[in-house]
Amino acid sequence: MPIKSEPVEVNIGPQHPSTHGVFRMVARIDGERIVDVKMVVGYLHRSMEKLAEERTFTQNIPFTDRMDYLAAMTGNLGYCLSVEKLAGIEVPERAQYLRVIFSELQRIASHCMATGAFINDCGAWQTPVMYCFRDREKVLDLFEMTCGARLTTNYMRIGGVAFDIPDEFLPALDRLVNDDLPYRFEEYEQLLVGNEIIMMRARDVGVVTPEMAINASLTGPMLRSAGIAWDTRKADPYCVYDRMTFDIPVGYNGDAYDRMLIRIEEMKQSLRIIRQAVHQLPDGPHKTDVPLAIRPPAGEAYSRVESPKGELGFYVVSDGGPAPYRWHVRAPSLINLSVLKEMTVGQTIADAIVTLGSIDINVGELDR
Amino acid sequence: MINDTGIVVAFYILAATTVGCALMVAFVRELVQAVLFLALAFVGIAGIYIVLSADFVAVVQVLIYAGAVAVLMTFAVMLTPAADRKNSSTAFWAPAAVLAGLVLVIIVFVSYDTNWQIANRPQFGATAAALGEALLKPYVVPFEVASVLLMTAMVGAIVLTKEEEGEDA
Amino acid sequence: MPHAVTLTLPGQQVADRIRTRLPHAVRDVQPGYVVLEPASALEVMAFIRDDEQLDGKFLVQMCSVDQVTRIDVVYHFSSLAQNHIFEVKVPADHEQPVVPSISPLWVGAWLQEREVYDLMGVVFEGHPALTRLFLWDAFPGHPLRKDFMSLPGGQKTGLSQFPKQVPGQTGQEFRPPNPGTGQ
Amino acid sequence: MIMALLTIITDNWWDIRDLSNLSHEIEKLIGDANGPAWLIYVVSGLLGAIGIVSFIGGVAVINIWVERRVVGRMQSRLGPNRLGPFGLLQPVADAIKLMQKEVLMPGTASGLIFTAAPIMFTVPGILLMAVLPWGRNMTLASLDVGVLFLLAASSLAALAVFMAGYSSDNKYALFGSMRVIAMLVSYEIPIVISLLGVVLFAGTMDLQGIVLFQEKYWAFMILLQPLAFFIYFISVSAELNRTPADIAEAESEIVGGYHTEYSGMKFGLFYAAELINAVVVSAIISTLFLGGWWAYKLDEIVPGWMIYIGKIYGVYFLFVWTRGTLPRFRIDQLLAFAWKWMTPMAILNLILVAAEVLVWDESGWSAGVMIPAFVVINGTLAIATVYAFMRLLAPKFERFPTALRFYSNIDVPSLPATADGAARAGTQTV
Questions:
Q1: In C22-101, alpha helices (H)
Q2: What is the DSSP letter of A163?
Q3: How many domains are there within chain A?
Q4: Are C81 and D412 inside 8 Å of each other by CB?
Q5: Chain D stretch 365-404, residues whose beta carbon is closer than 8 A to a beta carbon of chain A
Q6: Lowest CB count within 10 Å: A226, A275, B20, C154, which one?
Q7: Which of A308, A307, A329, A327 is nearest to A316 (CA)?
Q8: ipTM strictly over 0.90?
Q9: What pLDDT, in 10s, does the model give residues D168-197?
Q10: How far is D404 from chain C (nearest CA, A)?
């Protein structure tokens, strides 16, 4: 007579070391296998979209830092681009190059964090996280040097960048990009990529097929790991990305291991972009003068940016007043989770944790 | 040799704990506690072996019984549905008590009947080597038969569980 | 071959394409977007996804805008193969907004529809698990609506601060009593 | 009498190189003062016990510091250095913090088992210490079934884990304990068989005997039995549930494992027991494989037990090293690893050793020839078997991960519209 075992409901989160913030996953498991996954979000919901309706366009910029607090620069950039598109503002060359440099630096910092946290979910007792944090600190020092803040940078303005870069920025950036980080990434390559245990833990875990990826509108490393070569910087080049030559890493079988590889490769590509951008950095004003309470013409605009988590879109509707009439953010973390059920049902809890780590969600952006 | 008082005292303590645990196994309410008392009884028996300076058998007793059989029992207990985890009293306790009383009487009678002599043999040397010799020299056939029996038992167990999985899949 | 830079299809081109299959599905055509008839919205969506010229297989994003007289549900579709993007709106009544759910067609819409329902109150028929996403179920009202916690006259919150009203009239009922003074 | 005892200990402490000197001295002393005969056993037994328990107390405290410091250095950070010089008082602070913490017990927990579990988890660790040889004849109890005694004591841990898991009546704890028991039981077999290989070679099960064997034939056992060492090290690190096998308290999965509900000194006991077990196991490894207190000519100059402790911390560093760097296996990979890799390899090793011992006895060649021959043969065979197993059993991953494809521009294949989302509608409760 087979042993009768009824499924047990297990709560993973909201206060759990490996859910990257207050994200709760209620998994019903039968023995080790997961039967059903239900996710509960909203613990960090600050209703930013309502608040933004009562502040001027410039006052809304700090909101974008607090959404994806690990990739503040790309958040700022996305919002500023959408308002500039709405108001038809021209951004000087130097500001565009600075924007590219800083969003690529932010991508390195965020991917460092993602890789470290992912390996930590595989169980490696904080050692890789410490290495990744050490490298991330170097990038954050550069941010602090220019805009005073490490995490919530609030560096971009509508029409350009808040401050021009100080004199010691370029030599520090040069030292970081040419002498330090390339060897760090090789170190990751040797330590993590060939590691059998990680291959065993991450191979064929959380697999996404290309069709499902497109249908579930996944973006960023999730889409590229499924084998679809799509990158907003290439498809819809904003700022001066069309003058940069870089490659898009694309995976084969859409599992957690491919996503990790993609993130490490993307960090290398970012280095390439930064080198080219620093090489072509022109002089000139870093910001066009835009009135503080800008009143863009009534209308709507949607613009998107390739943030480390995926495609971050801003849909801004204005009615001619100083405040946006409606302000919607396309959060890649939330939409990348729509396939969570396909990826985890049928696998064990340990795999579910690894899958969640590989999606690299950021709860600030998820809950907005 | 420590003179006899030390050994006798040790023996009585160990005997008391073993019998006490065995009784507790029967009477304790919680089934899981019963299993743990069983493990304690096994360790008590190993202690008695040590008092008889049969060290190899004592260590093997701990390894086999306390280490493996007790864990097996716990798995068995864990697999029983939580409802009847209680050490519920069955209706058969009357006949069981009679039977137990009968066995007790027989033991007491036999222990009084035989005339025990202190075997004046020298102190036991290392028993492990002697056991090894005995197993492989005079008693090698029963040793091999026993191992074959164990093997068939294991294979049988695997086949049984295998079949069960077959149905579920 | 995909366009070098993402092309935003003009509303007119999208409308003509839709009209070839469903003549009277389009209510209004604007330069940037197309407004659909809510009744036949589902067939249009299916057509958008399966048509090889529009090829709207990738739902970029969906959200809702409260236009005081009606509520617009805004969809952005894009075709990764041809690298173009276009916008479609489905209007709904302001008091009881009901819009057909596109979750059977796009898996990505599951969470986004729940979010729109949670924050704007638009009911999507056909969505298998339409519950609140961020707020707790007993939350009164839908925050993103313009008339949420506003004067009975439906005054737009906008930039002007709330005029000092009698407490208990506009949302003060959610404020816990002040432990010190007790109100 | 006390003064005489003190003089023994103080003036020629250098000579206390092994316990036997001490017990002879005491015997002579008690003999002169014609005390009762049994007092000698009691006093020397007591001395040995105090020695070992204080060693364990010291080890449990020092190891907390060693582990945190070493893992800290591995992670390019400093590790505790605030309290006391180099943070040496940090473990003391931890101990005090744990002691003064309130010990909580879940209401529905069965009290007796709940309190008995940490004790039962610590006792085997300390029991094992009695059998280990610290000096030439400095062993508290040189049983001639020493190795078997080690296995028996370490098999009790499975029961203690179950008691902890079951009695704390918490879903996570139950998961953790069930996983650990499954692992302990399945890793016991490779341990037994690999130790059997060592015992076969040394001929005796008495640990002191094994060390003397290594001294007689002038070779560490690890050279003669590399495969046994490899299997034993991995299986025992799984038994201790340290990384890469610390699924018991896999914090990223089920938080805390079987000691989730414990707090205060009970948790302190669990934590200390884990460290003590680690030290005891590294002591066993250094005895069986690295020659215990004997180190070629060194043990004439330096007292045996100093070399021994040096080796213990050497092996302990290996454990800390693997703990600091390797990610964790999943439970089913771990069990498959135990049954598919460890057990067959151990049996293979046993067969090889038996054949070699037979050849050695029958042929009668002198040890001078046989020992180097065994070293060479066993070395190559060990590497060969591990490589063969890797080739045979390794999952069909490509040896080198498929490199990513690089696109200079976007390229999206026109895929058919995916399977209708409606099919998924029924089950979806996202």
A1: 41-50
A2: S
A3: 1
A4: yes
A5: 395, 397, 400-402, 404
A6: C154
A7: A327
A8: no
A9: 777 777 777 887 888 888 888 899 999 998
A10: 20
